Amino acid sequence: MPDPAPQAASLFEKAKNAVADWLEGVGTDFAVRETSPGSLTKLYSWRLAEFREGLKARLVLPRDFPATPAQVYISKELCLLLPHVEEDGRVCHSVKPKPGDYDSPAYAVGDVLKDFQRFVDACRDADWVDTEFHSERTAYWIRFSDAMRVRHQLNTPRQIRVAVDAFDRYINGDLALYRRQPPSKRANVALATVGKVDANVLSHRHGWARGAYQKGHTLFVRMPDEARWTPSTWARSFGELQTLIEGWTAQEVELSKWLKDKQDGKAHPYLIVLVQGPATFGYYLLPPPVPGLTEPNVVPVKVERVDADWGLARDHQLPALHNRRTKRVLLLGCGSLGSPIAELLARAGVGYLSLVDMQTFKPENTSRHVLGYSSADSFKAVELALQLRKEVPGLKVDGRTAIAANFVEATVTKEQFDLVIDCTGESAVRVLLSRLAVGLLSNTPVAMVWAEPMCAAGHLVWINAGDSWPQSDPADEAVNIATWNADTAVRLPACGVSFHPYGASDIWQIAAFCCERLLSHIDGTQASSTVWTWARGTKFFEELGDLAVPGPLVPVTDYKHDSGTFQRDFASLTRAAREGQIA
Hints:
By secondary structure, the protein is α/β, with parallel strands linked by helices. Helix content is 30%, strand content 22%. The strands form 5 sheets. The protein has an 8-stranded mixed beta sheet with strand order 12-11-10-9-7-8-6-13.
């Protein structure tokens, strides 16, 4: 049989071979190709001439070069001595892959070598080195913590989470630690909380309390903004850490005394958390090797923030988040539109949600609801509240199994909520809210949200306190963009049971549209009562045939999934509705 034809070189191989030809030609003065240990097989790596005295470097082409740029490696012992050096010695450069790298791979390697030369030159400046370490201090602290734990086989929790809250200079906190069953030497997870917040309760809320619980103590210390946190300033002993804390707390906290005051003869874990802006650094305290004669061991540890400021905003634009966390929202209807709106509002930072829905979740709604099979036959409002409470930090939420109109009329008190959102899509609920606008809800804004059949359009009517929705409920005549045939729903073989065919991707974009505008009102950037609409275009309605007659507001489109948005003046629209002037 004839020999099989050789396979053509891949794009990656062609690029790497082109670089090899270049380096083995004009590049021999500064690069020597390496071979595989014990063989003559040539590798795609080269020893480089010294860029500075004593600094040896290697150039390596990754397997998928040039999709991944060339890499330069120096001694791994320089990790945490020079910035941007990984544990394996790889130097993190700033060169990104470019479309032209496949055609000019040698130039791509040249860019990496130039960048490495700039790095070597910059490392001669001690101030630059210090600044680089401090600007990425969290990343370097994690490397240091991991290296210390592995090198010394230290017994620290696998994961330490901290819920940071506002405090001045320092504050005591709680610590909950969990060991897997049967008890192992190394804990699985620990949670530290500020002040009187119970870490064990919070761990159970978020599903982290897995294993045998052990109570501990945490000391939170705020670092000055101007303090540099670099390998040269890190505390590496109990005494050094105590000196730093005394300086930052104006001598008010002596770490050894704090530790002694917390001891009660039982075994407890102890954690020190240093906070500087958004960054946190931890020290886990281990018993002294010789009690009474030696200091406790301090182990640097990575601590991961889980408080609401970080989890919901990464400490960004906190005034807006804190304003949202003061808001009390009543949401009526937890169906395929109300449930994603509730989740979006929660994840946007709204502080308190009261969810009301009478129905249970059915498996056939999985394609359009935020709940799924694990919630089958559970009450929607209750189950959604439980899910949001577990997943969203800082949220206060409750679920009520009740008919929306009955709940509002019988349970809600005046000014109990800052906003009422109707997601039921029911005319009866809109009429009730309209009638309550001059009494129970006279000081409370109301938002009405609904979708037209097939998710052809979604509407948000925001009504400020003092304004009211017409009691004739002109949603179909004044707001909807199409007139719908009565047979649009798919009927099922049960009494009054039917559905409109759509999925999560359809209804959730309406939910996102509405939630974005709800938040603009909550944040105060939108002041007046407004009618907002998201609408599919003419091409979508063409494919519906005689199921609907589109109105003049339907945007003209060439593609089925194109859509448009617009707003209408609430006062003008409702005035025309009251006067019977809606076309």
